[in-house]
Amino acid sequence: MKSLLKAPVAYLLALLARAIIRKYRPVIVMVTGSVGKTSTKDAVKAALSEGFYLRASEKSYNSEFGVPLTIIGAKNPWENATAWYGVFQEALALIMLPSHYPKLLVLEVGADRPGDLSKILKIATPDAVVVTRLPDVPVHVEAYATPQAVRDEEFTPASALASHGTLIICADDPYAVTMSQRLHATITTFGFAEGATVRIEDPSFYKDADSMGMEATIDAHGRSLRIRVEGALGKTQLLAPAAAFALAIALGLTEEEALTGLATYSAPPGRARVLNGLNGSLIIDDTYNASPVAVEEALLSLGLVPNASRRIAVLGDMLELGRYSKAEHERVGTLAAERADLIVTVGSRAKAICEAARATGRSDEDCISFDTSTEAAEALAARVQEGDVVLVKGSQGVRMERVVEALLADPSDSAQLVRQEKEWKRR
């Protein structure tokens, strides 16, 4: 029954959302890419908050359901029929009655299957687009003919820009740079690469008396400015605020306004968040999702914390990789053997991580496999020691947040984890 209702509900949502856009004509900013969309969307919201009355997608509302719900301004009703009725009432009220509607919408958009972004672009056309990154082996690649087909889909919003539109791309991403060359939009770049319009320099981990995270200098328009991302670890955590800063300047805000807004930004739950663990350990909670490039970056972050007793990588299955799955898990295993003292895997696919690590000479004691995140959580809770740095990462379906929850020094910190809603907890 649910599958039968999905198409007509999506159609009705799209119809209502289009009518709302036509009536209020807000500026539309779309955030797309295969990695880092939600972090970038949140950073964009923060950076633009000083200059615009705006609304941004909640959490990762980036689908044919999530985007209309953002436009309407409603939460996900999940399977509650009464709540769905309320959503449609709210949408009709916006269409039929006057309302103080946002002047700018920040819409995270994503694709699981070919054609997903075409459906979203029929609802709203962007005035500005931020493309995060388009890696060699993107997530969801099993649903597409080739990795380039995924990149083409993710780049679709940029192609929909008018000639006067604003395009923000990552200077470190060769695919985004190459694909943008055929467009006539106004292009601004961000990243670590030489020549980036907003260039990140001297990234480092910091730890104060009451906070820790990443900080760097951004070189933009001849000025050097400092940015911080509190509570998250890894060089790539600096990309989101750099992209947001670039967009804010492109849309006419001052550097001071952009930095003031960004001071309120923090990485979303499950995106390399640093939490205190059992027995004086430190947890890097990167459990929202996983793709090969994201796992590679997460493993690099293990080395940023100085004086760790042990560096432990807890890695779950990377899903939706299709024919690339085995090779990418093995590649991650080789990298993990270089970066971690102890490797723990979760899921059938992730066993290839341990196999590859052992092929480099690592012992069975250095690499342990479990079938479920619950089993891994129980085993790790008895093993973590003072000074350990524990990275936890895996695809959504493996539910690696359960591992983090079991390792928390303060159980109340579970409120900071991903997938803590009742609907998720029941699954």
Describe this structure in words.
- The protein has 427 residues and is α/β, with parallel strands linked by helices.
- It has two domains: 2-262, Mur-like, catalytic domain (UDP-N-acetylmuramoyl-L-alanine:D-glutamate ligase, 3-Layer(aba) Sandwich), CATH 3.40.1190.10; 273-425, Mur ligase, C-terminal domain (Protein-Tyrosine Phosphatase, Chain A), CATH 3.90.190.20.
- Helix content is 37%, strand content 20%.
- It is built from 15 helices and 15 strands.
- The chain has helices spanning 2-24, 37-48, 66-72, 81-96, 116-121, 147-159, 174-180, 239-250, 255-262, 292-301, 325-339, 351-359, 373-381, 401-407, 422-425; strands at 27-32, 54-56, 104-108, 128-131, 166-170, 186-191, 198-207, 212-220, 223-230, 273-276, 282-286, 311-316, 342-346, 367-370, 389-393.
- Strands 2-3-1-4-5-6-7-8-9 form a nine-stranded mixed sheet, with helices on both faces. A six-stranded mixed sheet has the order 10-11-15-12-13-14, sandwiched between helices.
- Strand 8 (212-220) and strand 9 (223-230) form a beta hairpin.
- The two termini are 19 Å apart.
- The mean pLDDT is 95.
Characterize this entry briefly.
This protein has 427 residues and is α/β, with parallel strands linked by helices. It folds into two domains: 2-262, 3-Layer(aba) Sandwich (UDP-N-acetylmuramoyl-L-alanine:D-glutamate ligase), CATH 3.40.1190.10; 273-425, Protein-Tyrosine Phosphatase, Chain A, CATH 3.90.190. It is built from 15 helices and 15 strands.
